[in-house]
Structures are given as C-alpha cells and as structure tokens.
Amino acid sequence: MTNHVLAMTEQQHVSVFCFCFGRYSESLYALFSLGGLFYLFSGARTVAMIMLALSGSARSNGALNAGYICFEALLQAYDAAIQKKRPMWAVQALVTGFLRSTCVFLPFFAFQAYGYLNICVHGDTDELRPWCKAKLPLLYSFIQSHYWGVGFLRYFQVKQLPNFLLASPVLSLAVYSIVHYTKLLHQLFQSTSIHEQIIAIVDGRLVEAYESSDVATVLKSEISTGPHNKKQGYWRTEV
C-alpha cells in the first residue's frame, strides 16, 4: 500500500518493519485476522476458526471476527432452506456456525475467567473490586471505563474538539461511503434478482473452495489418467 501511495521502496520497507515488529499487539492481531479471513474464503474453515480465535487472544475485539463465520453460516442456511429445500441442511449450517463462533469467543471468555478467579475468588475478599459484584463481571470493561474513560458517548466532550477536527477528513469519507453503499444496497433489494444473486454468490464461493481443495485435484488427475490406465491394464491381461 505504501508503494502504491508514495512510490518509495525505502519508506515501504520501513513502514512494514515498524508495523510487524512494533512492541504492540496490533500487528499480531492483524496477522491472525487477515490470515483467518484468507482461509475462510479459501474454504479451510477449521484453520480459519483457529486463526480468528488466536486474533482474540492478541486483542479482545478479535472476538468480533466471529461475525464473519456467522454471516457465512446464514448464507449457507439460506441457500439450503430456500434454494435446495433442505431444512435439515440449514439447521446443520446454523449449528456448525454457532459452534465455530463459540470457539472464536473462547480466548475472550478464558481471559475474563482468569481475571475473575485471580482477583475476585482468590484475591482479598475484604476489598472486592466493584466489577466483581456485577451481574456480568467483565474485567476488561471495568478497566476501560474506570481507568480509560471509555463509554457510550463519553468521548464527545468540548476538549476533544481538536481531535474531531483532525479526524474530519476520514470521518467525511466514511460517512460518504456509508451513504453511497446504503443507496446501492437499497437499489439491489428493490430488484427482483436479489435471490438469484445471493445464490450465485454462495454457489460461486462453494465451487471456488471445491476447485482449490485436494479432493478436486485428485479427481482431476484420476480422470486424466483413467483411460490410459485402463488400456494398459487390458494390454497386460491380454499378454
């Protein structure tokens, strides 16, 4: 990206080096997130699930990557129930997607359980932290709210006005992109071919995943060498 924007090879290498070897978890999170998406769209769903779960180990918001698995499961269920008239296949796709999404959330749950056991259960029972008494004790949410001031609309303050001005070009581009995408989506849903387009996308992805798999490679090799093997075997029997 740096090469395309700046056309400078030296700056490109420096930016890649700083991002990959910076003393922060963002690079590791990006590695597992992008790798998980690559394997997900390649058809290797188990590997994708593992990598997306590891992204949640690097950063807590990696648990949101389970949304990609949920969306794919909904597409498969829609295709099975509406197009192929196979309701059991739709249920199987939804159950599989739910289990894979749960696995992506496991690192987040494990961290919360670790913090609760060490601080609330095995810690000082006389001075329990406020989050230990909550109905849903989440350590990370308490840290963000208590120490970092993170909360709904809590960032919108007068003293943050220079930061909003600094981010206004990117925010304007984001708002324009959302409005433009919403208009296109509205036009797409108004068309009568929305059902066919969804099915075509699902079928195309399934075909691509099948063609890139090892099974397709073996079958193609057997088809190409099948007649030759039969003739060779027939010649041996005749001899």
TrEMBL record:
Note the topology in the membrane: Multi-pass membrane protein
User: GO terms for biological process?
Assistant: GPI anchor biosynthetic process
What GO annotations for molecular function exist for this entry? alpha-1,6-mannosyltransferase activity; GPI mannosyltransferase activity
Residue ranges spanning the membrane: these are: 29-54, 93-117
The pathway entry for this protein reads as: Glycolipid biosynthesis; glycosylphosphatidylinositol-anchor biosynthesis
Localization (cell): Endoplasmic reticulum membrane
What family does this belong to? Belongs to the PIGV family.
Can you say what this protein is called?
A: GPI mannosyltransferase 2
